[in-house]
């Protein structure tokens, strides 16, 4: 495998090239010099501080060429929403946070990745749905982190791409592809959107209702851009103060999105209320059954299911049957008829 390494200084470049040279053919360049690479690599590994404007600009200048590389791994040593979302906005197919873990990096490079998939004829074809959706979510979180306007239509278009992908290949394939992305909030948003779409497809929702559902799913956790990653990605149980902070995200997302142009009242309602339960025990407004819209009820089911089955480095992925069993035990909180309809999505699709 031929790997192109980009870094923002000579020390980082030398260290990373020395590490990867054990396993791969390597070509290394600093971001602040013009690229002299003539051969298209199999993979790209970027190690740069994405808080620095010059580094972002340098990567954008290379984007036309790097976009042709099927596997683009960004090493994020300053874990923050701004850096991770910037990586995906710059075209990362995988963002790896924290200190460099050689085993994890080698495994990521050895994996076929999200952007390749076998066609029915056995050929390998370009597949952009996961990349486009991850970039859209990354751009959205970056905008929210800096209080800037988001590209609403790009986010909705990315959701449409997920719907087309799931219609063609099914939910199970989407879940497998998405789990190769960042383990935290970004992965979760992609999983929720896929589950919500398949739920809508299984119910035969008309096109406009399905678009409303997947748009709400894409936007639903944007309020988490204001919550530190150390809390969002914390292994184990949150303490009372951390839990209270996490529970501010629906209102934060609602307040941010209502200032944007092109987001409907139904979607805003879903963003604010996707943690409400029929028995009034949810948050932030303790709504009860008659006050909770159908789109919110569906999104809540998809959100909980996706949280249960997502991949985390500190716990094994929960089987879908076990996750559905937990949902089924939430009697009085989730609509029974929808839970019955969701069974085939959870177990067989």
Provide an overview of this structure.
With 349 residues, the protein is α/β, with parallel strands linked by helices. Helix content is 53%, strand content 9%. It is built from 17 helices and seven strands. The protein has helices at residues 10-20, 53-61, 63-66, 81-89, 102-110, 129-146, 152-169, 171-178, 185-203, 207-219, 229-232, 240-246, 249-258, 265-273, 294-309, 320-328, 336-347; strands at 2-7, 25-30, 43-47, 71-76, 94-97, 116-118, 124-126. A five-stranded parallel beta sheet has the order 2-1-3-4-5, sandwiched between helices. Strands 6-7 form a two-stranded antiparallel sheet. β1, α1 and β2 (25-30) form a beta-alpha-beta unit. α9 runs antiparallel to α10 (207-219) and α15 (294-309) packs parallel to α17 (336-347). It is elongated. Mean pLDDT is 87; it is low at 113-126.
Structure summary:
With 349 residues, this protein is α/β, with parallel strands linked by helices. Helix content is 53%, strand content 9%. The chain has 17 helices and seven strands.
């Amino acid at each position: 495998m031929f790997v192109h390494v980009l870094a923002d200084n000579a020390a980082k470049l030398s260290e990373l090239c020395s590490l990867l040279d054990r396993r791969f053919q390597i070509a290394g360049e600093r971001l602040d010099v013009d690229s002299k690479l003539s051969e298209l690599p199999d993979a790209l590994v970027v190690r740069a501080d994405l808080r620095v404007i010059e580094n972002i600009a340098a990567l954008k200048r290379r984007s036309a060429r790097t976009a042709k590389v099927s596997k683009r791994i960004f090493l994020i040593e300053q874990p923050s929403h701004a850096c991770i979302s910037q990586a995906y906005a710059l075209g990362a197919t995988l963002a790896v946070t924290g200190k460099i873990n050689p085993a994890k990096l080698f495994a990521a490079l050895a994996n076929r990745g999200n952007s390749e998939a076998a066609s029915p004829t056995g050929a390998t074809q370009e597949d952009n749905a996961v990349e486009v959706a991850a970039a859209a979510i990354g751009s959205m979180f970056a905008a929210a982190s800096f209080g800037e306007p988001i590209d609403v239509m790009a986010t909705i278009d990315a959701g449409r791409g997920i719907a087309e992908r799931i219609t063609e290949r099914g939910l199970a394939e989407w879940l497998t592809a998405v789990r190769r992305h960042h383990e935290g909030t970004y992965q979760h948003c992609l999983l929720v959107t896929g589950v919500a779409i398949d739920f809508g497809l299984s119910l035969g929702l008309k096109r406009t209702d399905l678009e409303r559902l997947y748009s709400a799913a894409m936007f639903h956790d944007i309020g988490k851009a204001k919550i530190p990653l150390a809390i969002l990605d914390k292994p184990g149980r949150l303490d009372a103060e951390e839990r209270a902070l996490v529970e501010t995200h629906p209102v934060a997302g609602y307040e941010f999105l209502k200032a944007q142009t092109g987001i409907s009242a139904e979607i805003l309602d879903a963003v604010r209320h996707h943690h409400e339960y029929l028995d009034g025990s949810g948050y932030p407004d303790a709504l009860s059954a008659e006050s909770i819209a159908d789109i919110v009820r569906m999104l809540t089911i998809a959100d909980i299911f996706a949280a249960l089955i997502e991949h985390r480095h500190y716990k094994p992925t929960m089987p879908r049957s076990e996750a559905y069993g937990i949902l089924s035990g939430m009697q009085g909180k989730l609509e029974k008829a929808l839970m019955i309809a969701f069974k085939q999505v959870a177990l067989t699709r």
